[in-house]
Amino acid sequence: MIQVNNLSFSYTKQPFISGMSFSVSHGEIFGFLGPSGAGKSTLQKILIGMITAYQGSAMVNGVECKKRTKDFYEDIGVDFEFSTMYEKLTAKENLQFFSSLYEKKSRSIEELLEMVGLDRDGDKRVSDYSKGMKSRLNFIKALLHDPLLLCLDEPTSGLDPTNSRMMKDMILAEKAKGKTILLTTHNMQDAAELCDRVAFIVGGKICALDSPHSLIMSKGAAAVTYTWLENGEHSANCPIDRISSDERLKGLISENRLQSIHSGEPTLNDIFMDITGRTLV
Amino acid sequence: MRLRNLFLLDMRFQAKYGFYFLYVALTVIYVVILLALPQSWREKAAAILIFSDPASMGLFFMGAIVLLEKSQHTPCAFAVSPVRAGEYMLAKIASLSAISLVVAALLALTAGIAHLHMVLFGTMLSSVLFTLLGMMVATKIVSLNQFILWTVPIEILAFIPAILHLWGISPAVLKNYPANLCMDMISGASVSFLGLFCTVILIGVLFMAVRKCVIKMWQEAGGIKL
Lengths: 281, 226
Prior knowledge:
The complex is a heterodimer. Chain A is 30% helix and 27% strand. Chain A is of the alpha/beta class.
């Protein structure tokens, strides 16, 4: 679906994105993760044809992005982080208008509104919507023309846990239908849960690219942390695959002296910090 | 079909923001003013009123329309949709010209200007020209103050020669100047083929230039101050 080879781009004389290469298969959820200013949004703008002055190659659905025509957008749905609706029109009026811009038959507006829990608010003006409601409305706007590729920028931003769960389920449902999804996010938990593969982007370069599971496993297996009392409280860690050789742990168990024992594994966030030396801000 | 939907959206947008209400009120005021004037003054007064308001409303209102759209980030939505820049422009030109033509017709009929078809044709040409100029400026700016500042030179270059031309104060070299030609038509006078040709060419060149500006605006997801 997406083939990027040796992609470079710069706003100034300094390179902003340099030498990026990756591919995304049909039906895959691919995540771009990185701190603000890392180049995630710029990369997404290149892939949706909004920035055309790049070097290298960026092919989406068989089309070189810099040579795209307007028909390119018949198969692409973009959910920006901010609302792109006419504020004085109702949600239904907005969705009817934007769906009328495509050649393809629109998905049912009522059904989409119901899916995101806005069926009772369809006749409200968008200006009366909360941030979370606008976010959900913006998401279904991207689905109106049933695109093959969905580009989602922070889709769960501003949502409460219930709506965030609903949004993630909808994203997974679109993947199940065979849609390819590009996800740009700061949220490591969402990325780990949704993405088949993620790319860590820092300073305009891809620092790591793999499935969240492989990245987590690359740091090592899960570990146990245990505590015991011996002139005060002490704690120690032991990799879970070497637990039988930890004599101290075995001794504490046999003497029933353990205060606590917890198993844990590194999160995607730990891996990101480990690889890039940065946190996601 | 897409053009029709864009046109209808623009009319709905203009209605929601009170453009039609404003023009109903202005038309009533203009009609009252015209009826209050002596019969011999009405034709020229109506020509000035038509040229300086309904025919040129695109210059002023495009700033408000495009700035409101920018503040709601709808240019981003158009940038990633199949809508062509030309379709977006044509819809805006047609929707604003519709108001211009209705108001111009009412004022011309009130003033008793002969050759109504010529008045409407002149209004149409002026409306297209001014809307394109307004759109060009609106795509470049981020605040209403900037828009007002940038439209002043256009107003000076368009209105002063045209109004002087209506009173016969105009050098021969400006005979085919598009603003003067539009004023001639709005006052019901016939115009030369050369003047008409120059105006149509100017519209064509402006259309292509504004198309580039719109594409650039869509590619820039910049902020906006109102």
